[in-house]
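Final report, section 2: Outcomes. Of the targets proposed, Aminotransferase class V-fold PLP-dependent enzyme is the one most frequently requested by collaborating groups, and we therefore present its record in full.
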Amino acid sequence: MPDNTRRARDEAFWQTFADRYDLQLGPINLENGYFGRMSRTVVEEYQRNIELINRGNSVHVRQRFEQGESLKIQAQVAGLMGVPAQAVALTRNASDGLQSLIRNYNRLQPGDQVLICDLEYDTVKGAMRWLAKHRGVEVIEIEHLHPASFDSLLASYRETFARYPRLKLMALTHVTHRTGLVMPVQAIAAAAREHGIDVILDGAHALGQFEFNLIDLGIDFAAYNLHKWIGAPLTLGFIYIAPERLADIDPDMSEMHFPVTDIRARTPYSTPNIPALLTLPLVLEEHHAMGGAAAKGSRLNYLRNLWVREVRELPGIEVLTPDDPRLYCGITSMRFTAQDDQQAMVERLLSEYNLFTVVRSGAACGPCIRITPGLTTTAEHMKRLVTALTELR
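The predicted structure is given below as tokens.
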């Protein structure tokens, strides 16, 4: 058994990491997909950096942060991805980054088509529809069959590419926030490339949940969060643009603070959360010390499977995320088939079992309850969830 797989089952080992987080008394949090916790040491470093910048103010920022510290942090984030520093620009979050990539993509002409699906984040859908209004393109929207499979997902895109020959750009979500479905990005991107279609990848939930290589995936444009599974303070994300494709993304609203050859010109220029950015070196150090995405992902998948395997076949329960290991991660959604109101069931999970979850809607397959363990979640928490789902069904 690989070390990460074996270690994922070691409750004592993971308790040593859980002990590094300060938790508020209250419900068991099974909604860790919103944003992640900072460790106690990261919180302390963040607070020190707040005080540092408050004391030094613009003297520190002008002389040290802008002249050197920010560039080192940019390089460290690029190192996390295994890409050159000039391929990465820091943003407040993945949504901001995706909007920048979409609105500044310059290879569209009136009459071209762009593609979204039902599982895309609403901000991404809105940005692609904005292109229709301001660039004169047509938005093609597809819905994925449920239950999904690797072959059905790939086939749906291949059929769409063949049906709409004017497609030039598509959004693709690596891990869908509604159901936790992991898209077969490499296969879809390869098919898109055959038809001359560029992909803008939403990696908001992917980074830190599993390992991937952007070059192998065939992705030239992507945006990510650092505050979900990496452990950074809120307000930190970044975009990736393959260096050879930089000219295909315009400077943001003619941004002139950086040269046109600098990826940082592709995002809005504003005062960032400098104390949070100065905390990133410690965040990345702790992420790697924990074993990185491989270790975190193995643990999250293990916790996910503890509950899914117990309830998958129960009458009254429908697990929406498939069990194909290529298509799932720690995030998984389900619904009570005998209940029309999933929000009411979320409220019962909270009031009767002290389990905090969230309803996600917008997918063609209907509303669902998203269940997302985190690094402080235990096997015992999953047993309580199984009990709750079994009794409430």
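The chain has two domains: 3-30+292-392, 47-286.
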